[in-house]
Amino acid sequence: MKAIAIQQKPGGVQLVWTDAPDPVCGAEDVLLAVKATAVNRADLLQARGLYPPPPGDSDILGLEAAGEIIAVGEKVTAWGLGDRVCALTPGGGYAARAAIPQEWLIPLPANWSYAEGAAVPEVWLTADTNLFQEGGLTRGETVLIHAGASGVGTAAIQLACEMGARTAVTAGSTAKRDVCRGLGATISVDYRSENFREAILEQTNRNGVDLVLDCIGGPYLEDHIRLLRPYGRLINIGLLGGASGALDMAAVLMKSLTLKGTRMRARSRKAKGRATQQFRDRFWPLLVAGKLRPIIDRIVPITEADAAHALVKANRNIGKVILEVAPD
Ligand SMILES: NC(=O)c1ccc[n+]([C@@H]2O[C@H](COP(=O)([O-])OP(=O)(O)OC[C@H]3O[C@@H](n4cnc5c(N)ncnc54)[C@H](OP(=O)(O)O)[C@@H]3O)[C@@H](O)[C@H]2O)c1
Question: Cα(241) to centroid of ligand 1, in Å?
């Protein structure tokens, strides 16, 4: 089959669509003819050798895919040839074919494109698990979501609003803030021109927030601890700003705060299956009905994966950048 290979070039790496061995479909897996996949920040790091796949996962890039089932393992009964699905992948999404655990699959409705399907698994499951299972967000609470116009951010805003939470976001441009407000964010701060902590305190009657969905990390740690209300939760999912920061343990203790880091990729097969099922039960019907929607920045051929990575690295996307895969 064809797949993206990471090749060294002077001063960096190059993503090249080239021949690769076919994936092995296990007894409880399906083999997907991949029609679309999507860029995630983890792919950018992995391409640079900074985020190797967990042992046993494919070393081909790509954490999600949408496509058609072309083979099933001997123990698979719930899925059949020709089924249109999207799913997290154990790596290997940037390829013509991918082997995927059956319990990770999400059925695509007939009126959904593969590009729309590929925009869902990684960021919607990340938003769902971290807002609700890890972050315990409940109706009436306030959540701060950084990178509001990112793939994760656009999903998280919609999920939080759907569950009756008040949503504050940061974003780096007027266009991005507009999109966030359009999705339901009530407070939006341009962190480049304003102090986000002060802006949010001001707009919450100095009450702060109950939950922070944090993809920035160290440099914001002090601000987050100050912003969190008693029994607040800080859920870290990324380190876009860096790893180290100052932690006021007295505030953690006195406000009974919870600090947690989570990674979708590090979850076990079973845990990802559970997360998928919860999402399918609770929120997937709302996406299918059009009440919630994946936000797609653009769709490009997978042969242009290099340019797609450059765009995401430069923070120019609003929502997901989709890579379309032509038939092998
Ligand atoms: N832990 C997990 O399981 C998991 C899973 C998926 C994603 N993630 C993480 O979630 C985050 C969002 O992922 P994504 O794929 O949705 O991202 P994305 O669509 O690529 O958007 C990321 C956005 O973050 C903002 N940003 C970048 N550097 C920043 C900085 N130093 N300070 C503040 N904002 C910054 C930029 O928007 P502005 O123009 O607004 O600055 C950028 O467009 C990433 O950190 C990713 O690694 C974690």
Answer: 10
